[in-house]
């Protein structure tokens, strides 16, 4: 506009000089420069209008492009066009003018042609295909496509929920037993002892716990504590084979053979410990001079596990009990077994040769 003003002032100065020099001619007919000035002003006005329309047209096209991205961006563009945009239009001349003029006195340009709000804008085929697919109503997206999508806040870390579980007495005793074994492997005997005792308090009739605690005391040289612990268990369960076997073994090793024999009065045949219990009782009876009882136990062992050594032991015990008939029968059964050594077979043949005439005379 400053260039136009300079041009107009220059034309005024020229006209004034020409009027002073040729005043009579100017009175007769208008000077050609007056028409030139009118044409120049008209051209300037036309160029201004064309420039304004080009800016408005460019703004309309950018608005259509922005509104054609997604259905959500159309809604956001419409809302942004309806709101006042006087302040944003003053920042840059490249942006489109606001559609709603809340302050008409501040606008110094001719009134632009109103642009209708795009209800169903024409968009490319690909964009139209995307807009036909409805988006979930629960997550509306009103952000303009040109604006960056805000990052979602990270989900909070999963919280750990600690629940208190009540263990039964049996379960807690099992845990203490396991920990006691681990303590023994580490060499922490005091810790192991305490854990064994805690487990026994929870399960006083648990065979494994009482047996392992008794073995712990016997291993430390405290035989009396081990025997007392086993006696308390046998008072509740007199025929418990595991406690009977450990109790009798400890008594036999410390020299209490008679107590060991008495502890094995009731033996349950058919248990895994029955064979060892019968052998231990038979040996104790033989040491106590009870050869008949020892022989009967050896015969029972031979019945449970047919082996030559049991028949041979029974024959010797019957012969010590002055029962030649039973001894001869046991020797003959032992000779039929194939698991004996040659020396044992020679001994058996010698004893049969001695007992056979004696038994024949008795008959």
TrEMBL record:
Compositional bias per record (Low complexity), positions renumbered to this chain: 145-157
Renumbered residue ranges of the record's region Disordered: 118-157
Pfam families: TPR_19 (PF14559)
Positions of transmembrane segments: 38-56
UniProt keyword Coiled coil present: no
Alphabetically ordered keywords of this record: Membrane, Transmembrane, Transmembrane helix
InterPro entries documented for this protein: TPR-like_helical_dom_sf (IPR011990)
Protein name: MSHA biogenesis protein MshN
Organism listed in the record: Pseudidiomarina indica
């Amino acid at each position: 506009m400053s260039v136009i003003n300079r041009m107009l002032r220059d034309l005024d100065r020229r006209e004034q000089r020409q009027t002073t020099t040729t005043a009579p001619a100017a009175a007769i007919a208008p000077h050609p420069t007056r028409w030139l000035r009118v044409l120049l002003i008209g051209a300037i006005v036309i160029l201004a209008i064309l420039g304004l329309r080009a800016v408005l047209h460019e703004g309309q096209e950018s608005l259509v492009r922005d509104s054609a991205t997604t259905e959500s961006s159309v809604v956001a563009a419409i809302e942004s066009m309806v709101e006042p945009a006087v302040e944003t239009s003053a920042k840059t001349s490249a942006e489109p003018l606001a559609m709603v003029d809340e302050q008409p006195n501040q606008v110094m340009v001719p009134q632009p042609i109103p642009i209708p709000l795009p209800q169903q804008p024409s968009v490319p085929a690909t964009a139209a295909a995307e807009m036909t697919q409805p988006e979930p109503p629960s997550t509306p997206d009103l952000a303009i496509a040109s604006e960056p999508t805000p990052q979602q806040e990270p989900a909070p870390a999963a919280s750990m929920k600690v629940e208190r579980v009540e263990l039964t007495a049996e379960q807690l005793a099992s845990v203490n037993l396991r920990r006691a074994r681990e303590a023994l492997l580490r060499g922490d005997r005091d810790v192991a002892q305490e854990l064994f005792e805690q487990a026994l308090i929870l399960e006083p009739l648990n065979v494994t716990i009482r047996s392992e605690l008794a073995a712990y005391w016997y291993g430390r040289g405290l035989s009396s504590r081990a025997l007392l612990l086993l006696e308390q268990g046998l008072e509740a369960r007199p025929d418990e084979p595991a406690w009977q076997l450990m109790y009798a073994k400890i008594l036999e090793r410390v020299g209490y053979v008679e107590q060991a024999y008495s502890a094995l009065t009731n033996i349950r045949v058919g248990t895994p410990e029955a064979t060892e219990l019968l052998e231990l009782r038979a040996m104790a009876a033989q040491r106590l001079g009870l050869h008949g009882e020892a022989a009967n136990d050896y015969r029972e062992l031979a019945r449970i596990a047919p082996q030559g050594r049991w028949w041979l032991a029974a024959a010797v015990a019957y012969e010590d009990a002055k029962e030649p008939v039973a001894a001869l029968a046991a020797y003959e059964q032992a000779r039929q077994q194939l698991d004996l050594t040659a020396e044992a077979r020679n001994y058996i043949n010698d004893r049969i040769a001695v007992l056979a005439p004696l038994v024949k005379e008795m008959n």
